[in-house]
Amino acid sequence: MPELAPWEQRLHALLPLYGHRNWIVVADSAYPVQSQHGVETIVTGADHLEIVRKVHNAIAASKHVRAHIRVDKEFAFVAEADSPGVGAYRSQLDQILAGAHLTPIPHIDLIGQIDQASTLFSMLVLKTDLTIPYSSVFFELDCGYWNAEAEQRTRQAMLAADGK
């Protein structure tokens, strides 16, 4: 078995520690370094789509977390004439994330969500050499063995118990 790249070693070390409210970002080359203490940025030197695939697979293989996948809303509007290769990138990304629900959110809002979350929770940014704008993929982690419906039932039971 080949030795893992440093970014991949770090991913595998952090993923068991991460839970709901942690984020993992696979970022393009212009993604900014965020100054919040909770954001760790690694310049990977690796292929962007390879990292997306490996992060997606690692999360899918874990029992304790699942991911809500966010993409920049602007990405759908980037023209091939302005960014050669964007069409091929979109097709490959769709193949890698087939079946996953991608939520488009304006880039500035995603940055704000990460900034806000990183005041309490850790984030891992895996920065690549990709030069296609708005191509970052944001994995917001959530509990893998609990869902919103179960949480709502629990909260309702608590309210009912408090009302007695």
Describe how the helices and strands are arranged.
Blueprint (H helix, E strand, L loop, with lengths): L5 H9 L8 E5 L11 E5 L4 H14 L3 E8 L13 H11 L5 E4 L1 H11 L5 E5 L9 E7 L4 H15 L2
Parallel strand pairs: 1-5, 2-5, 3-4
Antiparallel strand pairs: 1-6, 3-6
Largest sheet: 6 strands, mixed
Sheet/helix structural class? alpha/beta
Q: SSE order in H/E notation?
A: HEEHEHEHEEH
Helical residues, percent: 25-40%
- When the domains are counted, the total is 1
**Can you identify the CATH superfamily?**
RbsD-like domain
Strand content: 15-25%
CATH architecture: 3-Layer(aba) Sandwich
Task: Give the uncertain stretches in residue-range form.
Answer: none
Got a strand count?
6
> For this structure, what is the CATH class?
Alpha Beta
Principal-axes geometry comes out as globular
Main features:
six-stranded mixed β-sheet; globular; RbsD-like fold; 5 helices; 37% helix
Walkthrough of the structure:
With 164 residues, the protein is of the alpha/beta class. The chain has one domain (6-162): RbsD-like domain (RbsD-like fold), CATH 3.40.1650.10. Helices cover 37% and strands 21% of the residues. The chain has five helices and six strands. A six-stranded mixed beta sheet has the order 2-5-1-6-3-4. Strand 3, helix 3 (86-96) and strand 4 (102-105) form a beta-alpha-beta unit. Helix 2 (48-61) runs parallel beside helix 3. The chain starts with 5 loop residues before the first helix and ends with a helix. The mean pLDDT is 94.
Summarize the structure.
With 164 residues, this protein is of the alpha/beta class.
